[in-house]
Design goal:
- This protein is about 75% helix and about 0% strand.
- The longest helix has about 40 residues.
- By secondary structure, it is mainly alpha-helical.
- Helix 3 runs parallel beside helix 5, helix 15 runs parallel beside helix 17 and helix 17 packs antiparallel against helix 18.
């Protein structure tokens, strides 16, 4: 007798659930298998962006890589390089520390740490470690040249910068970078037409470089070629509409071309993006005082004067506005007069430093004056450059220590005028 065959019916929902589970497991497994490749792809994209000097795009790709694998030492290393390129040194050091903990190449980490020091101007070109790498740079030549030139500019070692640029242009004739940095050196010297020529060469080699376009716009503005500068600022702002400094540069050009109302509107837009943009407040204050609105000028200028009492142009514009409305202004006029005299002295000393780059006393005088009457951060850079040349220069050490101590003292909030409505 034939045995009976019993058919077991499986509910359709159960079959569907099992099938979906198998598919889901397959997708997860595929994702796990593909993840290392996706991380490498994002790192490759980031390195490509860095080659094009687009550090922000590089960071966006590396953020994706980190989300896929937070324990990738390579991701942390390239994040450190991107942050260094952007001048974000604290973040760069943090990423290097993470890369080290994750076992990334010690040699690569040591190089990146040295590049950060060189870029900050904290080690001179004569440093044995830097010289050894410069003599045998390999694929790191562009990074070494760029960091060393940036450091030389930061500490006003212009002879070193020019020597590096000559070698860099010889090694990489088709690179826009040495031309851009030569433009920056010429800008430091106040040779604006020549700087514009260098920036133009860089932009011709890399027409997609918006950062070079911005440098060229400023050089043309300083050369009083306002119409060309306006065109370049507008081109730049197509891709960077919310850049307050570029908007401010555009406003200055419009102001110089006699378009005061359009300029003022541009300055106001700057302040909607960056309320503490004191140069924009100064520009509005000057326009308002000139056009019979001194009370409004005071309202725009007061917050800036409270933040930056050492800025002579701010103090002078504020003094004129106060005088127009009959308020006491003598203190501000007197400070502006002292600051203008100090500024003239600093300009004279800087010209002397160009010819005597290792004269520490000249550098000390510049730094001390800038701490009192100029931009304190610039004063710090000059004093630090003294210590790079002569580490035991006691007056420079004392001035830096006093500045740090003053910064550590909590500041009382500056009184706000009831008329300050902006």
């Amino acid at each position: 007798m034939a045995s009976a065959v019993k058919t077991v019916l499986i509910p359709r929902r159960l079959l569907l659930g099992v099938s979906l589970g198998i598919v889901s497991l397959g997708i997860v497994a595929a994702g796990v298998m593909l993840r290392p490749g996706l991380v490498e792809y994002r790192i490759w994209q980031a390195r490509r962006a860095l080659t094009r000097h687009d550090a922000r795009t590089a960071l966006s790709r590396l953020d994706l890589a980190e989300s896929l694998n937070p324990k990738s030492g390579a991701t942390q290393f390239w994040m450190a390089r991107a942050h260094r390129r952007l001048g974000q040194m604290d973040r760069a050091h943090e990423r290097l520390a993470r890369a080290s903990r994750l076992g990334y190449s010690a040699e690569a980490l040591d190089l990146e740490a040295m590049l950060a020091l060189a870029q900050a101007g904290r080690i001179p070109l004569s440093d044995p470690r830097l010289l050894a790498r410069m003599m045998n740079p390999g694929d790191d030549a562009p990074e070494l040249y760029e960091a060393a030139v940036q450091g030389s500019l930061r500490s006003f070692r212009l002879d070193d910068a020019r020597s590096l640029l000559d070698a860099w242009e010889g090694d990489q004739a088709d690179s826009p970078q040495p031309h851009m940095y030569r433009g920056l050196v010429l800008s430091h010297q106040g040779s604006w037409p020549e700087a514009a020529d260098s920036f133009s060469r860089a932009l011709a080699l890399a027409p997609w470089r918006n950062d070079v376009r911005l440098h060229l716009a400023r050089a043309l503005r300083e050369s009083r070629d306002y119409r060309r500068a306006v065109g370049l600022y507008r081109q730049y702002l197509v891709g960077e509409a919310d850049d307050p400094d570029a908007l401010f540069g555009l406003g200055m050009c419009l102001d110089s071309l006699g378009k005061s109302q359009e300029a003022r509107e541009t300055y106001v837009r700057v302040l909607t993006l960056k309320p503490d943009h004191d140069e924009a407040r100064l520009a509005i204050g000057k326009l308002d005082s000139t056009h019979g609105r001194a009370a409004e000028a005071i309202a725009w200028l007061e917050p800036a004067v409270a933040r930056s009492p050492y800025e002579q142009d701010l103090r002078l514009a504020y003094a004129w506005a106060l005088q127009i409305v009959g308020r006491p202004a003598r203190e501000h006029f007197e400070f502006a007069a002292r600051a203008q005299a100090a500024s003239a002295t600093v300009k004279h000393l800087v010209r002397r430093v160009v010819d005597n780059p290792r004269d520490v006393e000249l550098r000390y005088e510049i730094g001390a004056m800038l701490l009192q009457y100029g931009r304190p951060q610039e004063g710090v850079v000059w004093l630090e450059s003294v210590l790079q040349i002569q580490p035991d220069h006691q007056r420079a050490r004392d001035a830096l220590a006093a500045h740090e101590a003053a910064r550590a003292v909590p500041k009382r909030d500056a009184p706000t005028s009831p008329r300050t409505a902006h």
